[in-house]
Specification:
Elements (H helix, E strand, L loop, with lengths): L2 H12 L6 H16 L1 H13 L3 H6 L2 H17 L1 H7 L2 H21 L9 H17 L7 H5 L16 H18 L2 H5 L5 H17 L1 H23 L11 H18 L5 H4 L2 H10 L5 H15 L6 H11 L1 H11 L11 H24 L8 H22 L4 H5 L2 H7 L13 H4 L2 H17 L13 H24 L1 H16 L8 H14 L38 H11 L8 H13 L11 H9 L9 H18 L8 H8 L19 H7 L3 H17 L5 H24 L9 H18 L15 H20 L3 H18 L7 H10 L6 H15 L4 H20 L4 H24 L15 H12 L5 H18 L21 H18 L8 H21 L1 H14 L4 H13 L2 H17 L1
Helix pairs in contact: 1-2, 3-5, 5-8, 7-8, 8-10, 10-14, 13-14, 14-17, 17-20, 18-21, 19-20, 19-21, 20-21, 20-23, 21-25, 25-26, 25-27, 26-27, 27-28, 27-29, 28-30, 30-32, 31-32, 32-35, 33-35, 35-36, 35-37, 36-37, 36-38, 37-38, 37-39, 38-39, 39-41, 41-43, 42-43, 43-45, 44-45, 45-47, 46-47, 47-48, ...
Keywords: Cytoplasm, Nucleus, RNA-binding, Transport, tRNA-binding
Function: tRNA nucleus export receptor which facilitates tRNA translocation across the nuclear pore complex.
GO molecular function: small GTPase binding; tRNA binding
């Protein structure tokens, strides 16, 4: 079978959805091979595309012809060097030139221009552009002049009208060529290739020197002819031909303008900017056809953005164009007054394009106004004058109701404030810096920005899709950045405008206020704090002004409620006094909650409002809102408010609040809808954040509220039990429910949720003190001990399920934090259950939990740790010794290593290192420290290496403290805890410390390597702390001389080691390594 037949068969198979998947993959693989071998397969591809005549092309599959063009594109775009090296480039290009030239004559001049498959026209224009890039100007210098005669060639017609097929093809070809040799968007998407860049430059130079005049004249002639024909048809005249009706003529004008615009940036401006072209473009800005107007606006933007060497030439261009006057007239003419449902989308798009033109012109003028670039005074003055004329036009676009139109001038607005005339030195006040005109402009801009932050009253955020809501939130974010820019110029101007607008609404918050205005007023209160600087931005001082004479150390005991409110305090006070929290609209209520949640410190200076806020949070506006998405967000805000303002909540209200919450404290596990029978529903339910994850905030809030009843211990325990008992009952039911097969997972999920809920309640209580006390155990701790026992029972019953093990770790971490040593008795059983069924992937979480437990309970769990440390370490090192296969395996390997090192370092930091040298574990110590030393010198994992160095540094003082060394004076020092450990220090750790920086792969300039160097410095300093002069003598007289250190350098090093403190020596050692590497 021939290559041609193989290609046809492969394309038929690949494009047939009914074919076998394996066979399709083979077909695709074959076609990729054909494409990659374009230097050999291009003749077949050329034949398949061109065919014998128009009839054969029409019969050929479009899939085949498009694939043929892909092969030719690969040849012309990526295989030029191969053709040149093979000495076949010129011959190949000549064949393509003649064959494709004949095809153009037959198909475009005389034929229907692929009428059966119009998308092939666009694809072919790209292919011919690539051939042009390979052959112009050396091999095909007549490329443009050979096409020009065809533009009016229409066989069988005596008319001199342009041939629509050839004309369209010629214009698309210009667009493709300009895109390839100049378009920065296309270029930025590719990797930079110097030869391609040089080729594009040479082609632009050649066109400018040889063909630009002719090409531009041809495009202008096409425009003039087609515009004349279009005007005649609009006046009632008959079309010249069926293919040149009004629709086709509009498309041709649009395409010609785009082609003209495509080469404006890189040809001589004297060709494109002439009285004739400018008059024609300005006329087209008012054409009845919106596509023509938009294309014209784009062309003028290209002219405006044209790079010119001399600033004075650029200013002269703007004066010639007088675009400011034109834009002012068009801005007024294109204002949209009807409702959105009645407005033509094309008219909106055209107005947006005018906004972009305004912004583009403004940006260019701003560049000329930049004093730092040193423009001539006349240019600076002239550009400033034109910019001032443009500002009112920009503001009208900015104020447009349509956000896309408003956003079109954002680039200009963002740069206006960096113009030298708007900058000010810190010593200047806005009053002395800003002229009245500039202040007026800032105030007008500010007013528009604040109004643009308002929702469209016709929209309902609840009914908008996610994209529309996100678009508005993004708009608000952008507008807020502009407020920042104005605030940097005049902070008072911004804060005063925000406060005035918000207060005007809040002080009349009645039925006459629309929901959008109400929401905006609350949002502005929310936003105001972001513009406060220094002491005014945080704490209670953001909301009230204490007398200056009050010393800082007296402020905690001061009566903050008696102090006068700041402007932001006044706004929040007005918010609380208004009835806006009761406004019957979700967007208003949601923004209200976001605001009170953000500024909890306000309620510490105006405590009388706490009750009212809590009422709104717990009624149908808040955690009982009918809409789940609102409830879930308010759950978090409620938690944050309770956490921030717990000391301001009247204790007598605690039980009332909790009673009102009981119906939302019911845990109901929900399974996701299965998408396939193989889907792991339990994993799916646990990995996606759902309603229950938000509900956990409520359980923690309950814990916080119960903790406030500390002065009524019996009541406190009773209220706590009233919340935990229903959960424990649910947990008991889950344990007792039979599980029938792997798909019956609801009891497991319910138990998981309940255990986490119980843990979250414990988290709400304050952290336990680590100081021993003789006071009786509080009753609430006894309740949490019951909870811990119940969790252990469920873990014993269901510990074959990872979800239950994970939930138990989660809950016990929080119970331990709150109850401290009172829970120690349960730790051995907990560890036993967690380890027995634990999988390797759980090790990281288990080790993190162990580290936390060691830190919280310390000597209380020494016995547990003593039994656990050796078998756990052996298991970890066996896992780390296994071969690593695949990315997931590598990540798990690294995470496990880091978690283990973090764990053993926690043991050191918490003075628990005696566990390593107990009777049970001392035989394991040599293997442990040798393994960690190997990790420390493995530069392929610098983060783990640094952790290993930290452990080893701690070990020197812990296990080898000499009596006459500096570290012996520490209160907890234990002398020579491990006999002979100093030998390990000198034979293993010292060579390691100096060997790591000497490694060829070590690079001190890398941040990770620098961090490791600092830790090595700590290790060496700790060795000195542990061994004192013995270490100095060994280094100075034995080790360093053995490494050929000059005596004076060795003496200096050990002197620094002894004299400098740890921080100083770390820096000295890093500098030493850096200088050694440089030398």
């Amino acid at each position: 079978m021939s290559t041609e037949q193989n290609i046809l068969s492969a394309i038929a198979i690949a494009s047939d959805p009914g074919q076998n998947r394996g066979l399709q993959n083979e077909a695709v693989e074959f076609l990729n091979t054909v494409r990659a071998g374009a230097t050999e397969t291009w003749p077949v591809a050329l034949k398949l595309f061109v065919g014998n005549d128009s009839a054969s092309r029409a019969k050929q599959s479009v899939h085949v012809r498009l694939f043929a063009l892909q092969v030719l594109d690969e040849l012309l775009d990526n295989r030029q060097e191969e053709l040149v090296n093979a000495g076949r480039a010129q011959e190949t290009y000549a064949t393509l030139q003649s064959t494709l030239g004949a095809y153009i004559t037959e198909e475009y001049v005389s034929g229907s221009a692929e009428a059966h498959a119009p998308f092939i026209r666009n694809k072919f224009s790209h292919t011919l552009a690539l051939l042009f890039l390979c052959t112009y100007p050396d091999q095909w210098p007549t490329f443009f002049t050979s096409i020009s005669p065809l533009l009016h060639a229409s066989p069988g017609s005596a008319s001199s009208a342009p041939n629509p097929h050839v004309t369209t093809f010629f214009l698309r070809l210009l667009l493709e060529i300009s895109g390839e040799i100049h378009d920065q968007t296309i270029k930025s998407a590719r990797s930079f290739v110097a030869s391609r860049h040089a080729r594009d430059t040479n082609i632009r130079d050649a066109i400018r020197a040889k063909d630009a005049v002719g090409v531009n004249a041809e495009v202008i002639r096409i425009l003039e002819e087609v515009i004349t024909m279009l005007e005649a048809v609009r006046a009632g005249g008959a079309p010249v031909s069926e293919s040149l009706g009004q629709t086709q003529l509009v498309e041709l004008v649009e395409l010609a303008i785009k082609a003209f615009a495509s080469y404006v940036p890189w040809v001589d401006i004297n060709l494109t900017v002439t009285p004739a072209t400018i008059n024609m473009l300005f006329k087209l800005l008012s054409d009845p056809a919106v596509p023509i107007r938009m294309a014209t606006s784009g062309a003028l933007l290209r002219i405006v953005q044209k790079g010119l060497k001399e600033p004075s030439d650029k200013l002269q261009l703007f004066r010639v164009l007088s675009l400011g006057q034109v834009l002012e007239m068009l801005e007024q003419k294109t204002r949209i007054t009807g409702s959105k449902d009645e407005t033509d989308d094309e008219e909106v798009s055209y107005r947006e394009s005018l906004g972009k033109l305004t912004s583009g012109l403004g940006l260019e003028l701003i560049k000329l106004c930049d004093e730092q670039s040193g423009p001539p005074p006349a240019v600076l003055a002239g550009a400033g004058e034109l910019l001032q004329q443009l500002l009112p036009i920009m503001l009208r676009f900015l104020a447009d109701d349509y956000d896309d139109i408003s956003s079109s001038v954002f680039p200009m607005l963002s740069q206006i404030f960096v113009v030298a005339s708007y900058k000010r030195a810190k010593k200047n006040t806005p009053q002395t810096h800003l002229t009245p005109a500039k202040r007026t402009f800032l105030m007008q801009t500010l007013e528009i920005l604040l109004q643009k932050m308002r929702w469209n009253p016709e929209d309902d955020p609840d009914e908008l899709d996610d994209d529309d809501r996100t678009a508005f939130e993004t708009l608000r974010s952008d507008l807020r950045l502009f407020l920042d820019s104005i605030s940097a110029i005049d902070e008072e101007l911004v804060t005063s405008a925000i406060k005035t607008l918000a207060m005007n609404t809040l002080t009349r918050a009645d039925d006459s206020v629309g929901w959008a205005d109400a929401e905006l007023s609350v949002y502005l209160v929310y936003l105001y704090g972001e513009f406060q600087k220094g002491d005014r931005s945080k704490g209670r001082a953001a909301f009230v002004t204490p007398p200056e004479e009050i010393a800082k150390d007296k402020r905690k005991s001061a009566n903050w409620e008696a102090y006068p409110l700041t402007p932001h305090g006044e706004m929040l006070d007005a918010l609380m006094q208004s009835r806006i929290s009761a406004y019957p609209h979700n967007a208003v209520a949601t923004q209200y909650f976001e605001t009170v949640g953000r500024y909890g410190d306000f309620f510490k200076v105006r405590k009388q409002y706490v009750g009212g806020v809590l009422t709104t949070l717990i009624d149908a506006r808040g955690i009982h809102h009918p809409k789940e998405s609102v409830r879930r967000r308010v759950f978090y805000i409620f938690y944050k408010f309770i956490k921030d303002c717990k000391l301001e909540i009247p204790v007598e209200h605690v039980t009332t609040i909790i009673d009102s919450m009981r119906d939302v404290l019911v845990v109901r596990a929900e399974l996701p809808e299965p998408e396939s029978s193989e889907q792991d529903l339990l994993n799916e339910a646990l990995s996606s954040a759902g309603f229950f994850d938000s509900q956990l905030y409520l359980f923690e809030s309950v814990g916080t509220l119960v903790s406030l009843l500390v002065k009524e211990p019996e009541k406190q325990a009773a209220v706590l039990e009233s919340v935990t008992n229903p959960l424990l009952a649910s947990l008991q039911q889950s344990i007792q429910t039979p599980i029938n097969g792997p798909q019956d997972i609801l009891p497991i999920l319910q138990a998981h949720h309940v255990i986490r809920a119980l843990g979250s309640i414990a988290k709400g209580f304050p952290e336990a003190s680590q100081t021993a006390t003789q006071e009786p155990i509080p009753a609430w701790i006894l309740v949490l001990k019951q909870v811990a026992e119940a969790i252990l029972v469920s873990l014993e019953s269901m510990n074959q399920h990872r979800a239950i093990r994970d939930a138990s770790r989660f809950a016990f971490a929080r119970i331990i934090a709150s109850t401290g040593s009172n829970i120690t008795q349960y730790i051995p059983m907990l560890m036993n259950h967690l380890i027995r069924q634990s999988q390797p992937v759980e090790l990281v979480d288990f080790l993190s939990f162990l580290s936390f437990t060691v830190h919280k309970l310390q000597n209380e769990i020494f016995t547990v740790l003593d039994e656990l440390i050796s078998p756990l370490s052996t298991h970890i090192f066996e896992l780390l010794a296994r071969p690593v296969e695949g990315t997931d395996d590598r990540l798990q390997h690294t995470d496990t290593k880091k978690a283990y090192l973090d764990f053993v370092t926690h043991i050191m930091n918490d003075k628990m290192h005696a566990v390593f040298i107990s009777e049970r574990n001392k035989e394991q110590l040599p293997n442990l420290v040798q393994s960690i030393a190997s990790i420390a010198e493995d530069l392929s994992d610098p983060a783990s290496a640094r952790l290993g160095l930290t452990f080893l540094a701690r070990s020197t003082v812990a296990f080898a403290q000499a009596a006459d060394a500096p570290g012996a004076s520490a209160p907890s020092a234990q002398l020579d805890a491990v006999p002979g450990y100093q030998t390990f220090i000198y034979e293993r750790l010292v060579p390691l410390a100096f060997g790591i920086p000497a490694s060829p792969s070590f690079n001190i300039k890398d941040g990770q390597s620098l961090s490791a160097t600092m830790e090595i410095g700590v290790l060496l300093k700790q060795i000195y702390q542990a061994r004192g002069q013995e270490a100095v003598k060994y280094l100075g007289e034995v080790y360093l001389p053995s490494k050929n250190w000059p005596p004076n350098l060795a003496a200096e090093f050990v002197t620094k080691l002894a004299e400098l403190d740890s921080k100083q020596f770390r820096k000295y050692f890093a500098d030493f390594v850096r200088s050694s590497g440089a030398s």
